[in-house]
Amino acid sequence: MSEEPSLFGPGGGAPGREPVPGHRASARGPWSVDPGAPLAARMRARSLDEFVGQQKVVGPGGPLRELIEHDRVPSLILWGPPGCGKTTLAGIIAGATDSAFEPFSAVTEGIARVRELIDQARVRKRATSRDTILFVDEIHRFNRAQQDAFLPHVEAGAITLIGATTENPSFEVVGPLLSRARVFVLEALSPSDIAVLCRRALDDADRGLGGRGLSIEEEALRRLSEAADGDARRALNALETAAELAAAEGAIGMEEVEGALQRRFPRYDKSGEEHYNLISALHKAVRGSDVDAALYWLARMLEGGEDPLYLARRMVRMASEDIGLADPRALQVALAARDAYHFLGSPEGDLALAEAVAYLAAAPKSNRIYGAFGEARRAARDTPAEPVPLHIRNAPTRLMKELGYGESYAYDHDFREGVAPQTYLPDILADRRFYEPGDRGEEADLARRLRRIAELRKRGEASESDPGDRTRSGGGG
């Protein structure tokens, strides 16, 4: 009799270890809850009706919901970001199908524990005909040989494997296992989903915080829901901390939420006030196009012993912040001055700095790029989990193509003047405009060019040439 491929090398975790903190497998359901477990663990949904989010997958008519309700759940891979409900959903599947649920973490437990669980599953199947769901959290942590060794047990029906991963299974799960498991893509929870979970935790007296008479201010709830970045675990853990901070007050406000989130901002040394006064004067003189004042403050700082390379760095900043695309050469001049000083040193190199500061002061000014990038950064912070639109994703694997990656992408070179009628921002930002060029210097020409691009994109005029004659980029973007 030939040996089966083995997961079971030396080492491994201790039997009986609980891979999901605060939970134990239970005949009464997916797991029983330790009253001392964190709030996020206590508030796990116990049924599809309690489950929040992932409506495309488990909402009415959703593909996974249909499989669960008809008790036809195959081995599957749940792919999604942290805190989106992968572990909770696996437990719900086990409870709904009356299967034994064996949770296992590829991070905290070893291969010996997997062997034990599979042996138990075989015994259970023979004795009671009851199926076993083996839930492997962070399945991507197993190497290729270890993943391959699951195959005979999945094919023999000894276990139904549910793997959870935050990584793209196209790259992190071996092909043979991927072909035997159905992949479901889960999304980060929306702020409204997070708010629902937080309110439920505050109202639930059995598992949550309902017995404390706590409330939360709407603005504080909004801040917590947005700062969670789609992660229910993070939100509920922060809510529990905020509740402790507000224990004597009876209400959770913005102060408690900020304290629970522990967001820290960098602080800077404010000593040496005159140093900052002088560099402020130099910067504002350049911004105000006063060449004489700029030269004076530069000389004051050099004479006072300021590091010339510090001044060169600040001039690079001035070129980017206050001149921008009104004169793109300003950045080149500032960088050239830095290199010239580095090459010559003082006093010869000082003249290169003076030449640069005079050029910057006299150049046309625009802070449109500075403002546009600030707006873009704020949008990025406000929408940190927005997915990249499917049509501009690359699709190097079959799974990614099946999921719609790259579908309907229009190749820009196939259109007149190289502009295709499609969007490149997430849907929620599709109509946002961060950069509006000014009418000074070269930005005036740039404004005309961008208006032309907008017109072409709106009209979507096709190229008169044969698209097949063009050389495409081969899927790399």
Features of this protein?
477 residues, alpha/beta, Rossmann fold, Helicase, Ruva Protein, domain 3, Zinc Finger, Delta Prime, domain 3, 5-stranded parallel β-sheet, two-stranded antiparallel ribbon, elongated, disordered N terminus
Question: What does this entry show, briefly?
Answer:
This protein has 477 residues and is an alpha/beta fold. Helix content is 46%, strand content 8%.
What is this structure's SSE topology?
Elements: E1 23-26, E2 29-33, H1 39-42, H2 55-58, H3 63-69, E3 76-79, H4 86-97, E4 100-105, H5 111-128, E5 132-137, H6 144-148, H7 151-155, E6 160-165, H8 169-172, H9 175-179, E7 182-185, H10 191-203, E8 215-216, H11 218-227, H12 232-245, E9 251-252, H13 254-261, H14 273-287, H15 291-303, H16 308-323, H17 329-344, H18 348-362, H19 368-382, H20 398-402, H21 443-459
Parallel strand pairs: 3-6, 3-7, 4-5, 5-6, 8-9
Antiparallel strand pairs: 1-2
Description of the structure:
With 477 residues, this protein is α/β, with parallel strands linked by helices. The chain has four domains: 163 residues, Rossmann fold; 71 residues, Helicase, Ruva Protein, domain 3, CATH 1.10.8; 90 residues, Zinc Finger, Delta Prime, domain 3; 81 residues, Orthogonal Bundle (post-AAA+ oligomerization domain-like). It has 21 helices and nine strands. Helix 16 packs antiparallel against helix 17 and helix 16 packs parallel to helix 18. The longest helix is centred in the N-terminal third of the chain and has 18 residues.
